[in-house]
Write a structure and sequence with these properties.
Elements (H helix, E strand, L loop, with lengths): L7 H10 L6 H24 L2
Length: about 50
């Protein structure tokens, strides 16, 4: 698995999103899923004429 180095500000922002001591990988995975879902929605929305 690749290693990712986060800045202090990014870690603080992730800490603000943590619920019940979630692991950072859980939060990042959730954020990626949200991003992908929004991207898919925008892509499909642009196909409608």
């Amino acid at each position: 698995m690749p290693q990712v180095h986060l800045g202090e500000e990014t870690v603080e922002r992730l800490d603000a999103l943590r619920v019940d001591d979630e692991e950072y990988d859980e939060i990042v995975t959730e954020l990626i899923n949200i991003y992908e879902a929004e991207e898919l929605t925008l892509f499909r929305g642009s196909d409608i004429e």
